[in-house]
Input
Amino acid sequence: MRKLLILSQDQKAFPDRKKAGEILARQLNNFKKENPVVLGIPRGGLVVAKEVADYLGAELDIVLSRKLGAPGNPELAIGAISENGRLFLNEVVSSQVGAKNAYVQQEKKHQLDEIASRVKRFRSLRPKVSLKQRTVIITDDGVATGATMQAAIWAVHQERAAKIIVALPVGPQETLDELSKDADQIICLKAPVFFGAVGQFYDYFDQTEDEEVVNILKQNLRRPSQEKKE
Output
C-alpha cells in the first residue's frame, strides 16, 4: 500500500463537488469490506463525502474538530481540539511559535465555543458516530495549506481510530506530503503543478449552506442496506 497515492497532475477542473466525489469514491472501492466511517469537513467537504459514503455503503458523519491557530498566524495549526474536548498539541510547533500555556488554553476555549455552536446546529439530527477501532476516511473538496485537514487527522487520532485514510479530489504536492506524515494513507485524484486555490479546480464552486449539510445528514440517517440488516 502506497502511503501517498496521487493519480495525476492534471490541471483540468471538476464540474462540481458531486462529480469529484463520484470519481474519488471509485478509487476507494477496496475499503468497502472494512466497514468504514466517512467524515466530511463542513461545509463543502460533506458534498464530496456523501458521494463516497453512498458508493461504499458507509456511515457518514461530519468532522467538528477545530485547529488551534498559532499566535499572530491563525492559519498555522499548532494543534487541534476534537468535538469531545480532547486536545492534541504539537509540542514542537507550539514551542517554535512561542505559544505559551495561557494562549493555548484561551485558543482551546475559543475553538470549543465554535464547536458548540455547530454541535447545536447539527447533532440534533445526527448523533456522533464512534470512531474507536474503525477505518476512518476523511475527505474535503480539496486542500491548500492543509491546516484544517491536519486538525481533523489529529482529532481522529485522539478518538483511537484503527486506520485513517485521507481522500481528496485535489491538493498541492507539498501539502499532501505533510499530511501523509500523520495519516495511514493519502489518496488524491490530482496534485496540479500550478496550484492557486481549491476553487480554481472546479467549474462550479458555490458556497455550501448549512441547509444543504442538514439535508445530507438527514438522507444518510437510514440506508436501505442498514434497514435490511435490522
In short: The helical segments are 17-26, 44-56, 91-96, 101-122, 147-158, 173-179, 210-220, 224-229. The chain has eight helices and nine strands.
